[in-house]
Design a protein that fits this description.
Blueprint: H1 7-15, H2 26-35, E1 40-44, H3 50-57, E2 61-66, H4 69-81, E3 87-90, E4 104-110, H5 118-131, E5 132-143, E6 152-156, E7 159-162, E8 172-173, H6 177-183, E9 187-194, E10 199-206
């Protein structure tokens, strides 16, 4: 099943940045990355730039990748407004990532990777693994609850497409902690916990 249309493009055009504050775990992650002397960080599925801006403000060499032209435009404007630099590119996560092997010290992916069927997600994880250095850090969040719409169409086990709401037509795969551990089996998983809005948060290190 190919990835559906970019539902977020319309949201960003209508509502602008939408998400302003970084994920609640980011202050802790930034300190961890500094302790590990990380420099190059990729925000995969960077949206309108909240984490790219946050990472650039924190002194990292920040990179963002998103498939929404409006998201990229808003990110670049936000960076410009704050006098910050970051490498932001327009591309779907489902394509080969435009970076060399072992390029990044860390990859973050907040509420993004679940927007596909499981076969596609596995390919995305392979690409994340490829561009991440050995012993590089990974932070991923995915939703626990199927609350993005009132009605859904199930297309495979644990993968549903909302029939209404702002994410209508966009695939959602709902992981269990056990499946997260299996899909990210090439990583040493440090932690999986629920944040305050019922998203699973995975922290891991590439072997």
């Amino acid at each position: 099943m190919p990835q559906s249309n970019n539902a977020w493009e319309g949201v960003f055009k209508q509502r602008g940045r939408v998400f302003i504050e970084p994920h609640e775990d980011m202050p802790r992650i930034v300190q961890l990355l500094k302790d590990r002397d990380a420099r190059t960080i990729l925000d995969l599925g960077s949206g309108t730039g909240r984490h790219v801006v946050y990472l650039a403000r924190s002194g990292f060499s920040a990179f963002g990748l998103d498939n929404s032209p409006e998201g990229i435009n808003l990110t670049r404007q936000w960076l410009s407004d704050e006098g910050l630099d970051a490498d932001v590119q327009l591309q779907s996560m489902t394509e080969k990532l435009p970076y060399e092997d072992a390029f990044f010290d860390a990859v973050i992916c907040v509420q993004v990777i679940h927007h596909a069927d499981i076969a596609t997600i596995r390919k995305v994880v392979q690409e994340i693994t490829r561009v991440l250095k050995r012993s590089g850090f990974l932070f991923v969040t995915v939703p626990k609850l199927k609350n993005q719409a009132k009605t859904f169409e199930q297309v495979e086990p644990n993968t549903f497409i909302p029939s209404d709401g702002p994410e209508k037509g966009l695939p959602h795969h709902y992981f269990t902690p056990e499946e997260l551990r299996e899909v990210f089996g090439s990583f040493d998983i440090w932690d999986i916990h629920l944040d305050t809005v019922n998203h699973y948060c995975l922290s891991a290190i590439r072997r």
